[in-house]
Write a structure and sequence with these properties.
Length: 157
């Protein structure tokens, strides 16, 4: 819900507001680490205020990554990833749909900005957000189930 207080805070304390929004999503990352990333990405007064206002109006962008969004949102998500955030979007997708419905390599979100080896490393890294054997679903078991006959896939794989 958008309140006049949160819009006021986007002007008075944009870094704090952005940090709070990210902390609401990224519960495993220390507030100090989040604030360091936000401070590095948010830039000057106008950029940080615009980013804060956008997050007030559409906080879900931190988990869904959907456009349209200011470039600063993309910069923030990339910087958070580099700081060790495993991928809120992927975690949310796993929670909503189940890891047995996720297929790595389907190129969503779009991945044309890096090479295959980097994508594999990234997939393995973000797969750690899944409980139990969810990483195995995401990294190959779902794809095997979809495209391979059941008599080819050994039981339990």
């Amino acid at each position: 819900m958008i309140t006049s207080g949160s819009l006021d805070r986007s002007v008075a304390d944009p870094i704090g507001l952005i940090t709070d929004h990210v902390a609401d999503v990224e519960k495993d990352l220390a507030a100090e680490a989040i604030q360091a990333v936000v401070t590095a990405v948010a830039g000057g007064r106008a950029k940080s205020r615009n980013l804060a206002k956008f997050l007030v109006t559409r906080p879900a962008v931190l988990t869904d990554g959907r456009s349209p969004a200011p470039r600063a949102v993309g910069d923030l998500l990339i910087a958070l990833r580099e700081a060790g955030v495993p991928g809120a979007l992927l975690s949310e997708l796993g929670r909503c749909f189940g890891t047995d419905h996720l297929v790595w390599g389907s190129d969503f979100p779009h991945t044309h900005d890096r090479g295959y080896a980097q994508l594999v490393d990234y997939a393995r890294d973000v797969a750690r957000v899944f409980p139990d054997d969810g990483a195995a679903d995401y990294l190959g078991r779902t794809a095997a189930r979809l495209w391979c006959p059941s008599d080819v896939i050994p039981a339990g794989r």
